[in-house]
Write a structure and sequence with these properties.
Layout: E1 2-7, E2 9-10, E3 13-14, H1 22-35, E4 37-45, H2 49-64, E5 76-79, H3 103-112, E6 117-122, H4 131-138, E7 142-145, H5 152-161, E8 163-166, H6 183-189, E9 195-199, H7 207-217, E10 222-225, E11 237-241, E12 244-248, E13 254-256, H8 269-278, H9 284-300, H10 305-315
Parallel strand pairs: 1-4, 4-5, 5-6, 6-7, 7-8, 8-9, 9-10
Antiparallel strand pairs: 2-3, 11-12, 12-13
Length: about 325
Amino acid sequence: MFFDIQINGCWGVDFNSESLTDEQWQFAEEKLALDGTDFFLPTIITDSVDAMLAKISRIASLIEQEPISKRRAVGIHVEGPFISHEPGYIGAHPPQHARPASMDIAKRIVEAGHGYIRLVTLAPEQDSTGEVTSYLASQDICVAAGHTNASRDQMLKSIDSGLRLFTHLGNGCPANLARHDSIIHRVLSLRNQIHVSLIADGHHLPLWLLRSWIDWFGIDRITIISDAISAAGLPSGLHSLGSRMVHVGDDGVPRSEDRSHFVGSGATLGQMNSILDTHLQLSASDRQKLLMTNPATLIFGHDSHLLTRDNELQSS
């Protein structure tokens, strides 16, 4: 049983599509369940504010259609638009829509989510006062840093304001960084104050580095995410992603059409569980922490309804 707190789509279904249908949603849920992903946070990425609000509202309405006892999408992850527009740090997000944090926009995002916003990824340097981070944290929303070149002091200030997580460490940043003072080393230095999510497909991070960071942060401070896009589960070749095309190689990794950078992941948590088992030889209990317990505790807390429901499902 897995909980994916960052997934953009799968098996040809794009959660960021403006024309997402009920049938596509149900199909994606069924495919994820077969994969072992019983819970997930559909992730809405950076776009114009109006487009993001419409997509968030649509996902919220899809979640509300299902009874709690059958609900697999247990919230929404909003990644952006308060992220860095700098090349490399922006990743595959459209740079023209990256913007400084705004209380007005943050409140509109929360309202559009109808209580289902559970995680927001932003760049601390885009929220220089920490006001938006504090507001989101006060709404019981987990706030993560990501797509950011925040200084160590900015990271510390954001942590003081309620930041708890760093999104996909080692990705969403340039390929070439300063030897010493880089966003990766800053986060490593704060390992006792923050949790991190990692993409465990063996491509976004080399497996030896994944192993090293699991040892470095400790098993209780890491959550494995898929960051899967709609091309996950599809054969190699060109596939549409919104208004652009992505190329899925023989290795299963989606890249930009010019092959210059990754565009999300093509792997699911089920596949990552196999990698953690076979290549890193992690125990079943450690994999359960990385893939279910840690994300559930991070998003909902120790006494969450999700964890209770987990126990009920396991005993049924």
